[in-house]
Amino acid sequence: MNMLTTFMNVAYRSVTHSSGTPHYFNDTEFFREFYSLVLGREADVIDLGFNIGMQADIILPLTTGQIFGFEASPKIYQFAREKFAGVPAVKLFNCAVSDAEGRAGFIDTDFWGAGSLRHTAGMDHVRVGDDYSVVEVELKRLDDVLADQNNIGLIKLDIEGAEFAAIEGARKLIDRNRPFIVMEYAHNALSFTFRGQQITRDTLFWYAAEIGYKVYNIYGICLSNPQVWATSVLRDTADVYLIPEEQHARWATDLLPVYQYKIYDKILEALEWDSRSPSFFALTALPSRIYEVVNTRDADASQDYLSATRTRLVRKLGQRKEIFETKTLSRRGEVLLGLLYDGEIDAAYRLACIKDLSEPELARFEEGLAG
């Protein structure tokens, strides 16, 4: 099964918030549609990883309820407190949320939104380097802080890998309110342990079932099937929706079709207006499609597919160099498409068949590219 590479490139493209802070397309365009469908007009919301309040800006027009925002970074909390000082519906807490009370060191980065209770893959991605400080923060459990809340319709979690501990510390609240949950589930989580075990790609698979939720990716695809889970999680989505099982029939029948039509239109609009070359998205999705074919068809059928794909590729590209200018293809992907463009079908097939490719092997294939 092939991952949704094109969707991922649209959903996780960098956009600039009105504050000047870079974020992702799906944070506003996709989440707005989800919130508008599942959030009751008087429901309260919990926002873990409040940051500068980008989600609050979306949610405030949708409900008359309160937003309980939790932000561990002292400097970001101060910014948010000043921003929402005149908004009584927003109640802010300067603490980290976990499964136990206490104190902990929080890595507060200069890149706002990358801070965490652990050094994570996200910090390496934004190259924080030495631009961070470790500050002591309070740890709180939602079951303690919001023990009397009975109107929570939505919980959003984006706390750089610490999401499982936060949910564990809110089990009573979740059982009592049964809210919809929006959760980042990215490689940052792999830097944490949960119940004494290292978090893996599959941790949420069993944990969601334990707490009575169905998991969907942000494209509206149910991830209950293990094969679909393996294709999507940590690959073409870094965000998931948790749907209460008792709400699943309503979600799947009434709400999900509306959501999918809305976000698919947004994806198509982004493709139609994208300023990059017309071949950009076709190129970024193509290598993973090729890997799918050669791993599911015999050699003759695979080579027929590669020959047909080569014809389409040559017609599509204005110049061969476009293969090497996407800045999203892996080196292997560039070499694969380069060989294909050059008509080296056998070499492209052999490269696509190798599952665990070493650097020396890739270098040898690269030597076969035309100058």
Summarize the structure.
The chain has 371 residues and is an alpha/beta fold. It has helices at residues 5-11, 25-38, 54-59, 74-83, 121-125, 142-145, 163-168, 171-177, 203-211, 226-232, 248-273, 280-294, 299-316, 331-341, 345-353, 359-367; strands spanning 14-16, 22-24, 44-48, 67-70, 90-93, 96-97, 102-109, 132-140, 152-157, 180-184, 193-194, 197-198, 213-217, 239-244. It has 2 domains: 5-271, Rossmann fold; 280-367, no CATH class.
Which features does this protein show?
Rossmann fold, alpha/beta, 44% helix, 371 residues, 2 domains
What does this molecule look like?
- By secondary structure, this protein is α/β, with parallel strands linked by helices.
- It has two domains: about 5-270, Rossmann fold (3-Layer(aba) Sandwich), CATH 3.40.50; about 280-365, no CATH class.
- The protein is built from 16 helices and 14 strands.
- It has helices at about 5-10, 25-40, 55-60, 75-85, 120-125, 140-145, 165-170, 170-175, 205-210, 225-230, 250-275, 280-295, 300-315, 330-340, 345-355, 360-365; strands at about 15, 20-25, 45-50, 65-70, 90-95, 95, 100-110, 130-140, 150-155, 180-185, 195, 195-200, 215, 240-245.
- The strands form four sheets. The chain has a seven-stranded mixed sheet with strand order 5-4-3-9-10-14-13, sandwiched between helices. A three-stranded mixed sheet has the order 6-8-7.
- α13 (about 300-315) packs across α15 and α14 (about 330-340) packs antiparallel against α15 (about 345-355).
- It is elongated, with a radius of gyration of 23 Å.
